[in-house]
Amino acid sequence: MPLARSFSVTSLSGLDEWDDEFDLDDAVLFEIAWEVANKVGGIYTVIQTKARLTCEEWGENYFLVGPYMESNVRTQVELIEPTNAALRRTIDKMNSSGCKVYFGRWLIEGSPYVVLLDVGFTAWSLDRWKSELWENCSIGVPWFDREANDAVLFGFLTAWLLGEYAAQCEDPPHILAHFHEWLAGLGLVLCRQRQLPVATIFTTHATLLGRYLCAGNVDFYNNLAEFNVDKEAGDRQIYHRYCLERAAARCAHVFTTVSQITAIEAEHLLKRKPDIVTPNGLNVKKFSAMHEFQNLHAQSKARIQEFIRGHFYGHLDFNLDKTVFLFIAGRYEFSNKGADIFLEALARLNYLLRVNHSDVTVIAFFIMPARTNNFNVETLKGQAVRKQLWDTAQTVKERFGKKLYESLLVGQLPEVSKMLDKEDFTMMKRAIFATQRQCLPPICSHNMLEDSTDPILTCIRRIGLFNSSQDRVKVVFHPEFLSSTSPLLPMDYEEFVRGCHLGVFPSYYEPWGYTPAECTVMGIPSVSTNLSGFGCFMEEHIADPSAYGIYILDRRYRSVDESCNQLTSFLFQFCQQSRRQRIIQRNRTERLSDLLDWRYLGRYYVSARHMALAKAFPDAYVYEPHDPTSTTGFRYPRPASVPPSPAHSLHSSPHHSEAEDEDERYDEELEAEKDRVNIRQPYSCFTDEKDHSN
Questions:
Q1: Alpha carbon 403 to chain centroid distance?
Q2: Partners of 328 in the beta sheet?
Q3: 8 A C-beta contact, residue 505 and residue 337
Q4: Which UniProt keywords apply (predicted)?
Q5: Which parts of 181-238 fold into alpha helices (H)?
Q6: pTM (2 decimals)?
Q7: Which of 234, 304, 316, 517 is deepest in the core (most CB within 10 A)?
Q8: What are phi and psi of 101, to 5 degrees?
């Protein structure tokens, strides 16, 4: 169901340079979210990565507002005295009135100021504030919903902070407050209800009702207009949360979402069409030489291979140099994140690889946190056996080297039969016997608390992927976030992603999708869908996404079985690529990172802020939206050389040698230069010309 394009819908050339009429010296920006200095989900990444750019634009007039969490503050925040006189008076007044408000710098890029509100300290006001919410807004919050109770406390404290700040300012201030998600949305509603002099923006990163409906196995996107939203929210006991979210969306001066697909969803579920789509970006660190990120890939892949040697000891009957690493990561939402369709596609891929007698092995990692009680003993044993084998090999190597050295010293060529004695052979035989294994390599690296009902393990039992020698597809389920201090797989998430060959994210519900975006900026190809914000964004801006390593799966207009077949086809084609073709594809994928840089995408937030200021303070600010018909955007062209997919790069003659493949027409620097000509370099409206040239 198409939504009419607004002027700024993900068309990167749609925003021209701003005029000097927007003077932000007398304006103050408060950005409010539950995930300020408090990592819960993707909104934390949005705010953290965007902070440096926003600080460049607003300077000392930018403040982030979030909840006070003592454990997070100890490691992430440096508490200081407020530098803004009005804000200092505001915090002193609130602290003397029974609140606990903290001020400091968040220790991330840009070092933004943060105002942290202790919601637990003001819990004594919860009943009074709930009564006020019911009397003024007719929204009732049940006592048992702790998350909603926190939202009430946080919302009233935020409105109190903004109202007190407006009162403490000597001159009439131009306050702009940007609220993220329903947990912060009540503060916006109260600002409008109390008629505070505050311009408001509300951004929904995913609608509450949409997430619940998609988890219920309904044909969500093709029936958006048919849902009785009040009944559906009530049936799921989230009506009070839905009311808070919908009220914030309706009351805001400017309403934004993170993607075009979420804009369609919000129009039907929240009953307001978003004013602007504000795609999520990342801080992209470009490499000076093309081979640098390829080297990082090789280093990280070697570390994953070490884990595989231990995990599959006794059954290491496949060539690691011809092994492809796939992975899926994120919240453990079996259907929403597409783990169900990924597993089914892996079973079909396993069949294709076996019947085609392929020498390629696929190892699929599932990085999804679930309830566990400890590491799997068999998994830990595998890493211990691998280390023991390595120590044995090192010992024998040292003894061999010493004998070789002594033989050469006396001017004699060594006799090979005397270089290894009986003791050496005994050590090696003992090491070989230690690698014998009676059971198959484990699927799960941890002991699951709900093993019999776990969705991933249940599906694996059904499709029969048990890591047997006959299977060309192996599965490793790691139900815990990755950490460089883990005794099992000592890598952080970024290192792990760099070491893999393909990220697979066939999500059914994914308003944006940071996981495939992170893959892209690290030069790792990925599978996304036309129901994710990232997938739609890339489809709009790339003429041939698969040639650039972005495979877009159709989950909206195809049945589940058809989508599964399409995903299987993507994976099978990827497995057929030569090593050189994968290198070419990674180079192309990494070049797309400019599209996801906040230097590009930050301009949409700039647009939203200017629009809100103009609506709230029409005497001081004027905003004229661009003509939608003049917004043409740009697209990455099809690559000049042959696409790296085997389906498109086969020779016309059936007889060709490997040498011919090496001469295939491809010049990385020439192709990159053509992309630079077609694509404008990132532009930030608040940096000078010198910054543009760097």
A1: 54
A2: 366
A3: yes
A4: Allosteric enzyme, Glycogen biosynthesis, Glycosyltransferase, Phosphoprotein, Transferase
A5: 181-193, 208-215, 229-235
A6: 0.85
A7: 517
A8: -120, 130
